[in-house]
Amino acid sequence: MAQAALRAGKHVWLEKPMALTLADAQSMADVAAAHPAQVTMLGYNYLRSPAFQAARALVTRGEIGDLLAFRGVYDEDYCADPDLAWSWRATLAQGGLGALGDLGCHLVSQMIALMGPVAEVTAQTQIAVPMRPSPEGPKAVENEDSAMALLRFASGAQGSFATSRVARGRKCRLQWEVHGSLGTICFDQENMNELWVHRANEAGFTRHLTGPEQPDFAAFCPAAGHNFGFNEQKVVEARDLVAAIHGGAHKGPDFATGLEIETIIHAMARSNGAAIRL
Amino acid sequence: MAQAALRAGKHVWLEKPMALTLADAQSMADVAAAHPAQVTMLGYNYLRSPAFQAARALVTRGEIGDLLAFRGVYDEDYCADPDLAWSWRATLAQGGLGALGDLGCHLVSQMIALMGPVAEVTAQTQIAVPMRPSPEGPKAVENEDSAMALLRFASGAQGSFATSRVARGRKCRLQWEVHGSLGTICFDQENMNELWVHRANEAGFTRHLTGPEQPDFAAFCPAAGHNFGFNEQKVVEARDLVAAIHGGAHKGPDFATGLEIETIIHAMARSNGAAIRL
Amino acid sequence: MAQAALRAGKHVWLEKPMALTLADAQSMADVAAAHPAQVTMLGYNYLRSPAFQAARALVTRGEIGDLLAFRGVYDEDYCADPDLAWSWRATLAQGGLGALGDLGCHLVSQMIALMGPVAEVTAQTQIAVPMRPSPEGPKAVENEDSAMALLRFASGAQGSFATSRVARGRKCRLQWEVHGSLGTICFDQENMNELWVHRANEAGFTRHLTGPEQPDFAAFCPAAGHNFGFNEQKVVEARDLVAAIHGGAHKGPDFATGLEIETIIHAMARSNGAAIRL
Amino acid sequence: MAQAALRAGKHVWLEKPMALTLADAQSMADVAAAHPAQVTMLGYNYLRSPAFQAARALVTRGEIGDLLAFRGVYDEDYCADPDLAWSWRATLAQGGLGALGDLGCHLVSQMIALMGPVAEVTAQTQIAVPMRPSPEGPKAVENEDSAMALLRFASGAQGSFATSRVARGRKCRLQWEVHGSLGTICFDQENMNELWVHRANEAGFTRHLTGPEQPDFAAFCPAAGHNFGFNEQKVVEARDLVAAIHGGAHKGPDFATGLEIETIIHAMARSNGAAIRL
Hints:
With 278 residues, chain A is α+β, with helices and mostly antiparallel strands. Chain A has a single domain (2-271), classed as Dihydrodipicolinate Reductase, domain 2. In chain A, helix 4 packs across helix 6 (255-271). Chain A has six helices and 13 strands. Chain A is 29% helix and 26% strand. In chain A, the strands form three sheets. Chain A has a nine-stranded mixed sheet, with helices on one face. In chain A, strands 1-2 form a two-stranded parallel sheet. Chains in contact: A-B, A-C, A-D, B-C, B-D, C-D. Strand 12 of chain A pairs antiparallel with strand 12 of chain C.
């Protein structure tokens, strides 16, 4: 559908993940590249929160120095109950990747925005609940419930990465930290209005509450501490889409970046403990 | 305007505080009482957050037993800078009460929803920055920068109450705890998606993330941990207003409750350390 | 015993509270004053934690400017269970004051060290569990389970104060914040190795982990973040006692300060809502 | 020295890491095995905190079900400053491993106590500050500033592991979580008196404050919330040593377990991205 829309001269705004297979993602990115006048955008909404944008700005301005390491997780528990019924989500053909496709891709979208391109991936996956009940009896789960990875970035920095859909008690734990030579930044989407920053000359970590000094907050509220919401991320995303269509800067991620994300999570899915250079 | 609208047969939705003077609030409540077919509602938006509604439900269902005590603060720092220019906000005639009128009334709205009516108030106020710069030279601040109060509720429970607009580093610290004979509930609006609950038979405080099991969340998002936002409180408020107009239950606060809130904050403002029975 | 020891030429180190009655405390302070060569010290151990000492140093050095307000609580739940047996602790004759004598006095010891002398007290008390079981049947509890107070300090600053021994889920919640014209300091003994500080020019509150730059920590451990313990407070107290006996500076609190603390908590106990000038 | 002491019939209590090289650790374990009547113990003090022991007991009793995953870090920042002088610690011959030998081994000690034996390790290391100043000019740092690893446990569970001595703002961040099929446990040594537990039937994570219901706390204090300290871990360790010498159960870790820890960190040090089966 996306390719047909592009060929029909339309802009395309897609939810994530971009495609069920890496081949489809590649094909979509090719068609998008062949239609440069049309805007493509992917719904990686967590890139739009003021706190995340502020974190990226800190990194870009060099405020934490050279980047040394990234550590990130995205955990939820919506598949933790073994009695949860089998569904299409559990299939490779219709669901595609599991935790990586649903959750991990979000973490990758933030990670590459903060750290730059990934050079090498080594990963393991796990199916914690191999069979799930269905009206026809137990059926096999085909995609991963969790994944863990080691990463090397093109910059030389290191990364550790984990995602799970069976992490009891976690609801939207998209949590990461960036280690720089001059400071550290920490974030957890479950408290998406807090950014924790430490700089070399400071006593400890400082809690920055989301406020009008962070990107895109002031349009929603003039006062700090008045929480930005999950859904408002989507409002910013739509604004960015419209701005790009009207000739403004494209803030991404477009299909090219989407393909970069898919390449990383599919490498994690097939690594089985071996290093894969990207 | 509100009274004219009521007399003209209109429903009235007003921001808080209800009026600059207690006499005006009384008059407005009287007019509203004389027009029972029309809906009045006040914009105490913090009553609408899913976490607050869940807290009230816990109290109402008796899950923390008999209520013993309330402890609450609402602090911000928007007047902490002594170089902030004098404005109409600093006047009794145009700004009305200070921290009590802007912030404290919100805390009262939640407090009486949780604890029931207040029987007695003893309070102190303080003007931390007595003079502020203006183009004509320094001018006097007429209303309080902060207030503290002791309360007795009609139920016999105790209360401590504080509000400040000069509390350095606080942005939306509407924070309270309710002590019951069987448990304790804690909340802080700066982390409005967390409710902390302890029950007698539990090991400690449990962090409840806002989710679809809390009132009014599911209409915004199907998954817990995906943060509800400050502005979405206002959406719920508008929905409640429309529902009341269309004959549904009035979830309050109407002008009668608004008058109750005004009575309490004006008692705090004039107490000067003496107990005032309400 | 303390008076006899002083008269016998001994130094005296006493646990808190100093005495069961204010008259006894007065008498003890008088005897101590008559024996100035002998050291008296009271076991207000929470004054000795590195984090508290660091907080006091920040205040003393003027780093948060002029003091505006104090807000403090000390809550535990050891009497929350109504089936807890009646004991001597519940009597005025043998237990003395209730929550004020056991917990509140600790909070006062920190409060006056931070804020200076108290000028006026207005308080309420509450007995949440009026009767407790005993082998001879239910017996009356004579002293308060909780107390709340408003305070004016000699400096003109305001204070709010609360203590409870029936606060479900609280174990050692000696928690306070000091509001200054240039900053705010927050502390909670349940996380006694954290001090939260905000200064006017900073983005938010910074978490200071206890470390060797805080008073008296380096003698226990050379590295920050390696937690100081409750019992180690007592080690510092003993060291301070020995130092005072050997002619070093007396870091307090001696019997004179103990009497100041007793005066405040007994004023709270008898206020019954009326202002008491000290 | 340790081997000579064992041969001389002495019990041996050693600080960690056990040895500079894996060969030495092997030799020490061999000598210890040849002297089974003598007690050996290693100073992995973090195993002794009441919160850690409580966590291990929860796991052992099956309260979080089958173990799925471990995620742990141990970060400090004592080498983050590039101007810190070169010292023997930076050499393989005298300092041995870097972050792995100083910090990572502690995390391994807790990890295997919680998760059981490690079957496979894949790791990367990094030297963030390759040269450090010395009186003779800049000298090379030979051992790693940080390491990250993927792990497979013998049980089939997964693990992610990271340690750094250049993590700005971290002081004693020995932090981990254990994911089970029925619950999750989280811990951070910087708040060593808190254990966070979620069980399948609960609303969220509950904060368990260290108290007398946790192992070895009651001997130090009768009341929960009165913080256990870093140094008191060492007191428990010494008590365990003496108990083992006097014929009580050996709570470990002895030289055999020490060798297991060394085997893991040395595998991490030499992996260079390749999987190593243990």
